[in-house]
Design brief:
- The structure holds 2 protein chains of 2 kinds.
- By secondary structure, chain A is an alpha+beta fold.
- Chain A has helices at 33-43, 45-51, and strands at 2-7, 21-26, 62-66, 69-70, 86-91.
- Chain A has a single domain, classed as Roll (Ubiquitin-like (UB roll)), CATH 3.10.20.
- Chain A is globular, with a radius of gyration of 12 Å.
- Chain B is mainly beta.
- In chain B, the strands form 7 sheets. A 4-stranded antiparallel β-sheet of chain B has the order 3-2-1-27, with no helix packed on it.
- The chains are: A alpha+beta, B mainly beta.
Chain lengths: 97, 379
C-alpha cells in the first residue's frame, strides 16, 4: 500500500468538503499517478471532472505536480508514484482570459 | 405588477438587471459565477418555475450547466460535470453555447448546444443529459470546421407546433433539421453562399451565425451568416438573400420581434477581417417586412467613433408591448429600448465583455414554485 497526499487548490475545495490536503492509500503496486488519482476521485468525486476531461485527459489549463515536477514532463498519468509522495493540483497561469 | 429582468452573460460571470415595466431605469446586481465565461443563459418558466440556467465555463476547470431558482441568490453547482460526451466519441466538452427549454407539455425537457458541435437533451429537468446520437454520429461531422469561437452548435430552434421538428445551427457546418425528434438530421443550406470556400453553394459547411423564427410562423426562418442575410419560407429547404440596404451582411446578432412575425433585428459588423461597427456607427437594423427592406435604428446609439460589436446571442427582446429590445456589446455596454428599437438608452456601462442577453417579464406578485428536480447540494 502506498500513501500519498494530494494538495487541493482553493477553487476545488468546495468539491472536497473544504479540505486542502487529502491523504489516500493506493493499493496497486507499483502505483502510477493514474492509480493515485483514482483513489482521489473515490475520496472527492467532484474533483475529477474539474481536473480531467470526460476522456480522462488532464485539462489543458490544469497542472498536476508529483513532487516538484509537472506530470506533463514525467510520463503523464503513467508517472510512477513513491510512498509519501505529495501531488499538487494547480490551475495553470495560462488560464483566466 | 410586472417587471423585466435581463439575464446578462459576460466573460466574467452573470449579471441580473431589473426594471419596472416602463424600462427606463435599471438596477444591476452581480457578478454571479464570477470569473467564468457565460456563453449561454436561459430562463425556464414552465411548471411554475423561475429557473435560470447558465452555461458556465472555466478555462481551468471546464464547463457545466448551473441553475438558480432565486435569481442568483443560490446556485446549484453540479457536484460532477453534468454535460459530458460519451467515451466512445473521443470528444471533450469545451463550451456550452445554447440552452433551450423544451415544449411546454414536457416541462422537464431541455436542450443544450455545445462545442465541439453537438446537441444534448435532458428529460428529467437537468439531472442527466444525453447527447443526441443522430447528430453526434452524422457523417458530415468530420468535415465541419471550427470558426473563431470553436466548432460550436450555437442555435437551437424548436417548432412549437411539431415536437419532432427542430433546427440547429453549427459554425461552421450550417443549418441542420430534424423531423423525427433528433434521430436523423439533414443539412438545409440550399441558396446560402459560402464565401470562404471554393464551392460557393455546398450542401453544408456554411458558417451560419444565428437563426431565428417567430413561433406563429415556425416554417419561416431568418439567418445571419458569416457573410449573408437569408430567409427561408419552406422550413429551410431553400434560402433567399435578403441583404438589401444594410451596410454589411456580416454580423452575428439577430433577434425576432415578439409580436410581429415580419420584424427582425440585426446588428451589422464591418467585415470578418475588421469586426467593428460599420463606418464607426453603432446601428441596429430592423426589417418590418420579412427582409424586404431594412431601416437603421440609431436614436441614442453612438454614431461616431463606435467600434463596439455584438455577439450572436447578445441581442434579445422582451414580451411586452411595445416590445423591449436589448443588446450588449463586447465592450461591456448594455443598451435598452422600450419602444421596439425606436430609441435606445445605456442600461449599464462597464460590464465585462457581454456574450449573451435574455429578457424575462416577471409578475412580481406571483411566487415562483420550487420543483426540486435537481440532485446537487447547494453551494
Amino acid at each position: 500500500m502506498t500513501r500519498v497526499v494530494f494538495l487541493i487548490p482553493t477553487p476545488l475545495r468546495p468539491f472536497a468538503d473544504g479540505r486542502s490536503r487529502i491523504e489516500v492509500d493506493v493499493a496497486k503496486d507499483p502505483p502510477a499517478l493514474a492509480d493515485a488519482l483514482e483513489a482521489l476521485w473515490d475520496a472527492a468525486p467532484g474533483v475529477r471532472d474539474r481536473v480531467l476531461t470526460e476522456q480522462g485527459e488532464v485539462r489543458p489549463h490544469v497542472n498536476v505536480f508529483v513532487g516538484a515536477e509537472s506530470c506533463r514532463w514525467t510520463g503523464g498519468q503513467a508517472t510512477p508514484i513513491a510512498d509519501g509522495a505529495e501531488i499538487a493540483i494547480f490551475p495553470a497561469i495560462s488560464g483566466g482570459l | 405588477m410586472k417587471s423585466v429582468r435581463l439575464l446578462v452573460g459576460t466573460t466574467k460571470g452573470v449579471f441580473f438587471l431589473r426594471a419596472p415595466a416602463a424600462r427606463t431605469a435599471w438596477q444591476v446586481e452581480g457578478p454571479h459565477l464570477a470569473g467564468r465565461a457565460i456563453y449561454s443563459l436561459a430562463h425556464d418558466g414552465r411548471a411554475g418555475r423561475q429557473r435560470v440556467w447558465a452555461g458556465a465555463a472555466s478555462m481551468h476547470w471546464g464547463a457545466v450547466l448551473v441553475p438558480t431558482d432565486d435569481w442568483g441568490r443560490t446556485w446549484d453547482e453540479p457536484p460532477e460535470a453534468n454535460v459530458k460526451f460519451p467515451a466512445d466519441s473521443g470528444l471533450a466538452l469545451k463550451q456550452i453555447w445554447q440552452i433551450e427549454p423544451g415544449p411546454d407539455d414536457e416541462p422537464d425537457t431541455l436542450y443544450c448546444g455545445v462545442d465541439p458541435a453537438a446537441l444534448f437533451r435532458t428529460s428529467d429537468g437537468g439531472k442527466t443529459w444525453e447527447v443526441v446520437r443522430g447528430l453526434l454520429d452524422h457523417p458530415h461531422r468530420e468535415r465541419w470546421q471550427p470558426g473563431g469561437g470553436g466548432l460550436c452548435l450555437h442555435t437551437i430552434v424548436r417548432d412549437p407546433g411539431k415536437a419532432d421538428r427542430m433546427w440547429v445551427a453549427i459554425s461552421s457546418g450550417g443549418v441542420y433539421r430534424t423531423t423525427d425528434g433528433g434521430r436523423t438530421w439533414s443539412a438545409r443550406n440550399a441558396g446560402i453562399r459560402a464565401e470562404f470556400m471554393p464551392e460557393k453553394y455546398p450542401d453544408f459547411g456554411q458558417c451560419v451565425h444565428k437563426v431565428v423564427h417567430h413561433p406563429t410562423r415556425p416554417g419561416r426562418l431568418f439567418a445571419q451568416n458569416h457573410w449573408g442575410l437569408y430567409r427561408s419560407d419552406d422550413a429551410g429547404d431553400s434560402w433567399q438573400d435578403i441583404a438589401r440596404g444594410v451596410p454589411s451582411d456580416f454580423g452575428f446578432a439577430m433577434t425576432m420581434h415578439p409580436h410581429e412575425p415580419d420584424t427582425v433585428y440585426i446588428i451589422p459588423i464591418q467585415s470578418d477581417m475588421v469586426r467593428v461597427a460599420p463606418e464607426e456607427k453603432l446601428r441596429v437594423y430592423r426589417t418590418r417586412n420579412g427582409g424586404g427592406s431594412w431601416e437603421a435604428l440609431t436614436r441614442g446609439l453612438p454614431q461616431r467613433r463606435a467600434y463596439d460589436i455584438v455577439l450572436r446571442d447578445a441581442m434579445t427582446t422582451d414580451s411586452l408591448d411595445p416590445a423591449g429590445v436589448y443588446f450588449g456589446t463586447r465592450n461591456g455596454r448594455l443598451y435598452a429600448s422600450n419602444d421596439s428599437g425606436g430609441s435606445w438608452r445605456v442600461a449599464i456601462d462597464g460590464l465585462p465583455s457581454i456574450t449573451c442577453v435574455r429578457a424575462v417579464v416577471v409578475d412580481d406578485r406571483k411566487p415562483a414554485r420550487r420543483t426540486g428536480a435537481r440532485r446537487s447540494a447547494r453551494r
